[in-house]
Amino acid sequence: MTWRVLVHNDAINSFAAVAYALVRVLSMPVEHAAAAARQAYESGVAEIGAYTEREPAEAITARLQAFGLNASIEVAA
């Protein structure tokens, strides 16, 4: 089973705030964080990562939520 970590667009966080949180929480390169933030903004959701264990996906989701992002996990189809 694969668990996907998702970031959703919302009316609260700016594009820059989403990218900043992704860099801080995941040590994601700035270019990748900006691309993910743009995807969330344009399509409403961006997949941030996929994990074979549920616990790491939950931990990352919680850290993103602590930054104020609208993040969730789902089982990959």
UniProtKB/TrEMBL annotation:
Pfam families linked to this entry: ClpS
**Adaptor protein ClpS core domain location, by residue?**
2-67
> Its Gene Ontology biological processes?
protein catabolic process
Gene3D superfamilies cross-referenced by the UniProt entry: 3.30.1390.10
This protein's name: Adaptor protein ClpS core domain-containing protein
Species of the source: Kutzneria albida DSM 43870
